């Protein structure tokens, strides 16, 4: 019954969660640890806030470029030559590109197996299958924590290649190993891949009240035994947690247990608090004010992403229309920047400059495109992103980043392909995904005290 219950990757639960994973869950929350926070294993104490912001912005640009290099349409990438997975027959086929796992800005803590082994993973709404690196592994990126050894877990089981979970992987991204275990392939960019076997094991979170852990047995995940990346991955990141719309993602596999709903609340960059990921309904919470909702769209060429339809952007009294329908912008939890398709960006930034009536700074640091100095003397116009059925009003802190030398830079940059609504624009909003109703809702919230 619970073959498809994926890892509940959690650091702290709220009191309404039941310990037994076989029961219906009312709702629970998970700490989202900002990667630049002292609480994060990726924290770099030698970098000041400006350096941290610039580093995050560069990761945002790299992710955007990786998704759709040279593409301005919703189409699958060209097939790339792929190495044969160890201990399996060769499968060289077209594969949908997914984001770089190291380019996440939030991490989640969890334990895997029996006995429990603690892991850190990147939180990502643009991926489905969650995975960690496993032993033995001849080709893996270096990580500080020991590789997960499934043979040391009394609750681990290989997923068979003729099982239903294996058939949920696209045919051109799965294979059958010598022992009839299900082999999956995940591609990142043109020549970067990870290959592994599907497994099921117990995921544990807690402790909760009275020292108890929440345990979810037979959770399906990827056990990677081959990782060949052309980009750098931090040795502190043990894997990735997928919250996309596909069948292997965390919310999809929990399904009825969480009412097919999840939400997150991201904190400002300077906050000392953690963000929160909530799964399920929270009946004890008061009704939220100012909630707006818009449909999300799944494009078969981009099955791991939630697409919204952006009708236009208002900058004070000016409005830039996209003239597009059917899903033209990805909502993404990973990049801090919002990336607009070239034509839309050109019209947008022209209206911004006219609304501000100031000269742009000539020394805008890479990768920012529009910066101004002495912001204390400026009047900020209201920015509204007009999604179908939902006007999301952003404040200046969602649109600008403060840097050294009394410089502020806009968090919106041109995209090499499809537009992306980044996480800086989502700060201090509870963003809820309703997979049953196929909609995304935005509610203004103080996420630091959420």
Brief overview:
This is Peptidase A1 domain-containing protein. Helices cover 10% and strands 34% of the residues.
Notable traits:
450 residues, mainly beta, Cathepsin D, subunit A, domain 1, six-stranded mixed barrel, 5 helices, globular, disordered N terminus
Characterization of this structure:
The protein is mainly β and 450 residues long. Residues 1-23 and 69-102 have low confidence and may be disordered. 48% of the residues are buried. The strands form five sheets. It has a six-stranded mixed beta barrel with strand order 2-3-10-4-9-8. The protein has a four-stranded mixed β-sheet with strand order 14-15-18-26, with no helix packed on it. Helix content is 10%, strand content 34%. Strand 14 (297-299) and strand 15 (302-308) form a beta hairpin. It has two domains: 27-280, Cathepsin D, subunit A, domain 1; 292-449, Cathepsin D, subunit A, domain 1. It contains five helices and 28 strands. It has helices at 49-67, 164-167, 250-254, 342-356, 396-399, and strands at residues 27-34, 106-112, 117-124, 131-133, 157-158, 174-176, 182-188, 192-205, 214-228, 239-242, 261-265, 275-280, 292-295, 297-299, 302-308, 310-315, 318-321, 329-331, 338-340, 371-373, 383-387, 390-394, 400-403, 407-410, 412-414, 419-421, 429-434, 439-444. The longest helix has 19 residues, at 49-67.
Strand order of the largest sheet: 2-3-10-4-9-8
Please give the share of residues in helix. Answer: 10-25%
| Class based on secondary structure composition and strand pairing | mainly beta
Largest sheet: 6 strands, mixed, barrel
Mean pLDDT: 80
Beta-strand percent range: 25-35%
What's the helix count? 5
